[in-house]
């Protein structure tokens, strides 16, 4: 193992692309970033930052775009609001408001034009430098009890290169994701990635293991992204850059490994899954479940739907 490892520099930085237009949630996202849509009473993006921090990544760079100023405001201090809550002696809400501004060291870089996830990641090159880093997509929320990101960092420390999170999906869903060709390792939850295909037709997918929105990238990805031509959809795809790194040895920024994730993932990128996420999070809240769950059962029964506890 030791002779195949690249430098095991610690992963301390996270890049979170938030420049997307959120067109699937129009008109709500006409002036409100999709990342600021609430999951009960907390915007989705805060859960993502909390996940990064829980994995030890307290240096967080957000790749923003136009109309995303409210994200920066959310993670900034709100002195007038804090003073008003303090005057009312509303300590619980005061602490909740302060929490987001004290989570991490937040930095921001603007992506001038929407040229794809790969281009968004490339915008972080100056901040990240020659270090491995995490990429977290805001559409994917990982269950708070999962330790996916920590496990991915461990795999990077063991094998070097880059690490992607993979989740098995139904064959009819593979065309919605980047999919991986994989080879087993001695660890049951770790595979070697031999190829990657962005959103393949179902009959051309190399497997049913799809990339979900968590990555640990070797800094060599920046060099590859800088010369990667636009791919599917006319965008620079991170998948294409990782595909090249998967063919490289450890001295050139490779290889690529995958962590097989079988835990709880919430996809907030479409309306139905967003609604499911809100309901599940509400049901898990001790302060809400006692009142919300009986109402939900009654509502479902009233509509004549078959639901099991």
TrEMBL record:
SUPFAM superfamilies given in the database record: Nucleotide-diphospho-sugar transferases (SSF53448)
Reactions mediated catalytically: alpha-D-glucose 1-phosphate + UTP + H(+) = UDP-alpha-D-glucose + diphosphate
Statement: the UniProt record of this protein carries the keyword Transferase: yes
Enzyme class: transferase
Coiled coil: none
UniProt key word Hydrolase: no
EC number(s) recorded for this UniProt protein: 2.7.7.9
Domain Nucleotidyl transferase residue range list: 13-276
GO function terms (MF aspect): UTP:glucose-1-phosphate uridylyltransferase activity
The entry's keywords: Nucleotidyltransferase, Transferase
One of the protein's GO biological processes: UDP-alpha-D-glucose metabolic process
Family classification: Belongs to the UDPGP type 2 family.
Protein name: UTP--glucose-1-phosphate uridylyltransferase
Native species: Actinorugispora endophytica
């Amino acid at each position: 193992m030791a002779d195949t490892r690249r430098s095991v520099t610690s992963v301390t930085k996270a890049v979170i692309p938030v420049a997307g237009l959120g067109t699937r949630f129009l008109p709500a996202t006409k002036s409100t970033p999709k990342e600021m849509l609430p999951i009960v009473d907390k915007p989705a993006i805060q859960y993502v930052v909390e996940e990064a921090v829980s994995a030890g990544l307290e240096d967080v760079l957000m790749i923003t775009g136009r109309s995303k100023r409210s994200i920066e405001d959310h993670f900034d201090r709100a002195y007038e609001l804090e003073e008003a809550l303090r005057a009312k002696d509303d300590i619980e809400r005061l602490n909740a408001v302060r929490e987001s501004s004290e989570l991490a060291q937040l930095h921001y870089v603007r992506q001038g034009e929407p040229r794809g996830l790969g281009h968004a990641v490339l915008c972080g090159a100056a901040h990240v430098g020659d270090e491995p880093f995490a990429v977290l997509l805001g559409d994917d929320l990982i269950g708070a009890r999962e330790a996916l990101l920590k496990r991915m960092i461990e795999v990077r420390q063991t094998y070097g290169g880059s690490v992607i999170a993979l989740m098995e999906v139904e064959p009819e869903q593979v065309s919605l994701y980047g999919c991986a060709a994989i080879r087993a390792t001695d660890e049951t939850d770790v595979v070697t990635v031999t190829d990657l295909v962005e959103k393949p037709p179902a009959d051309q997918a190399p497997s049913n293991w799809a990339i979900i929105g968590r990555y640990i990238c070797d800094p060599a990805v920046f060099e590859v992204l800088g010369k990667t031509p636009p791919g599917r959809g006319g965008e620079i795809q991170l998948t294409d850059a990782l595909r090249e790194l998967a063919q490289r040895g450890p001295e050139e920024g490779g290889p690529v490994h995958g962590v097989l994730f079988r835990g709880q993932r919430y996809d907030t990128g479409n309306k139905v899954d967003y609604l499911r996420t809100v309901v599940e999070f509400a049901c898990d809240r001790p302060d809400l479940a006692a009142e919300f769950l009986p109402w939900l059962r009654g509502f479902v029964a009233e509509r004549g739907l078959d639901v099991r506890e």
